[in-house]
Amino acid sequence: MAAEFHNLQDMQHTASLVTKVFIQRDYSDGTVCRFQTKYPTELDNRIERALLEQTVKTLNSYYVEAEKVGGQSYLEGCLACATAYIVFFCMETRYEKVLKKISGYIQEQNEKIYAPRGLLLTDPIERGMRVLEISVFEDRGSSGSSPSSSMSSCSTAR
Question: Residue 15, class by beta-carbon neighbours within 10 Å (0-12 exposed, 13-18 middle, 19+ buried)?
Fold first, then answer.
């Protein structure tokens, strides 16, 4: 069974990284930012399939919202041209606002769903929008390696 963590800070301080799982971009509909909803087998017994799929679907819908072209996007473009892009020092674009909303959603999901299961979602913007990265952590007390064995492997790598 997976190690249980109480919150994000506990996990970051008392756990060691076991592996990283990557959910790739889905280019089947063109270059629109969208991630695959296929469940990675590395996450078996860590998180329910429905929870992960819901997170990915929500992220996909946020990215569709961010890339939607409408009157506000058109106005922002006109203002940018008229002010030689100086306007962007004074205001956030609609796209930037949605990216902040995505970051907040990922933070919330990490605190409520992923950290208690020993997982951590990384904001895709930090990975160049190429992948959705999920780090898998294990409680240091239950891992098979001792601190001295990991220290010796670090010193031999130099």
Answer: buried
